[in-house]
Write a structure and sequence with these properties.
The structure is a single chain. By secondary structure, the chain is an all-alpha fold. The chain folds into two domains: 62 residues, 434 Repressor (Amino-terminal Domain) (Orthogonal Bundle); 127 residues, no CATH class. Helices cover 63% and strands 0% of the residues.
């Protein structure tokens, strides 16, 4: 089992923070943080909660009680038979796996991935409002902006997507079935759409 000292060191170095800067942000001296990261001293509940908020992980993750930064049980990361079926549940599970992996590689990447999901969902919801599925009054942006800017925002996020930290560790199965299923389903749809486009211009 990973101990709290390893986790504190791992989380700080993943963010590219110096010990001095992290200590200042966490409200402790650099010497004390160094002792925590080396396992020389144990921290109290107040520091544990501050560190969890600061690094955007659960207290259980810092304590080494789970490998999930979001607080998921270890069994959640085991492939399920239904992960091979492309449906809403599989998409949701793939998104959770991706979030965990992105956060492991870079906290900024996890945030970027979450915002990408949100922007694409916003775009879908806006389109649904225009087709009468949900009320248009739910949206405050002018229709032209709500329709065009999300795609520009998406491209900007992807263009500046953070690189994986060289210090990052990965937990869980090497190739989650749910992610494989989503990739295959989307690629199949793209190939079919490409064939349809070619046929339409012939």
């Amino acid at each position: 089992m990973v101990n709290y000292a390893e986790r504190l060191y791992e989380l700080r170095t993943e963010k590219g923070l110096s010990q001095k800067d992290a200590a200042k942000d966490l409200g402790v001296s650099q010497a004390l943080l160094s002792h925590y990261e080396k396992g020389i001293r144990e921290f109290g509940l107040d520091f544990l909660n501050r560190a969890a908020d600061y690094y955007k992980v659960t207290t259980d993750y810092i304590l080494g009680r789970t490998d999930s930064r979001a607080g998921l049980e270890s069994s959640y990361f085991n492939d399920r038979e239904e992960d091979g079926i492309y449906n809403t549940t599989t998409i949701y599970r793939a998104a959770i796996f991706i979030h965990e992996r992105m956060n492991t590689g870079s906290a900024l990447a996890g945030d970027a991935a979450d915002f990408l999901y949100s922007v694409m969902l916003y775009r879908t919801l806006f389109t649904a409002s225009q087709k009468g599925y949900i009320p248009k009054r739910w949206f405050s942006l002018p229709p032209k902006i709500a329709e065009s800017l999300p795609m520009a925002v998406t491209e900007n996020i992807l263009l500046h997507f953070p690189d994986k930290s060289p210090n990052a560790k990965r937990y869980g199965n090497p190739e989650p079935k749910s992610i494989e299923t989503v990739i295959k389903a989307v690629e199949s749809h793209i190939k079919k759409a490409a064939v349809d486009i070619v046929k339409s211009v012939e």
